[in-house]
Amino acid sequence: MQGHGRGIDGAGHRSSRFRALGSKLLQSLIRNSCRQVALVLLVVALAACGGDDGPLVVRGDTTAGPLRERGTLAQARKALGPESSSGLDEHRLCRASWAKRGLELSFFGGPHRACSGADISRAAVVTSGRWRTDRGLKPGDSVERLRQLYPNAPFHETTHAKRRGYWLISYRSGCGLTPSLVAHVRNARVAALRITYRQYCGHGAS
Predict the structure, then answer these.
(1) Could you confirm whether domain 56-196 is CATH 2.60.460?
(2) pLDDT digit string (tens) for 41-64?
(3) What is the pTM of this model?
């Protein structure tokens, strides 16, 4: 009888050990599942915040989406990915375009050479309706809406195409009154928004 009792005790002890082991395995599976769910939620949240479907905001005359004034081409590539095209224009400024985002940036750099990641941003032009100013104006909006959002913005009819349009923001420099945020219009609608970052007089508009 004593031997039989010991057998029962041993079986009970093994059963208890198996239950404890099963409980640990279950807890481990739950923890791993929670981590996986959290990782999926994080990826979804990041996609929602940084994906291609969200609005891109032009804040004042200093920031276009994730890009601030005097940012570099390398920083733009890090924030937006590789450009769809780039090269030097007739003024020897580097111009880089992200066609799917409706964005073109121009950069200062050394003369007579290819674009460099160290080039400093000079101007940004946005043409997609995904972009909007911090007051809500976006390409495609009517001139009537522009005037509602920027009632004091004057229209300048000038031979300088990059300055022709509604001057949403301007400032006085050594060159006189200078626009830093211009809304270009075509057929009574906003065709593009142009930020020309404030620079010392002499660099000219880009």
Answers:
(1) yes
(2) 323 333 333 444 466 899 988 888
(3) 0.69
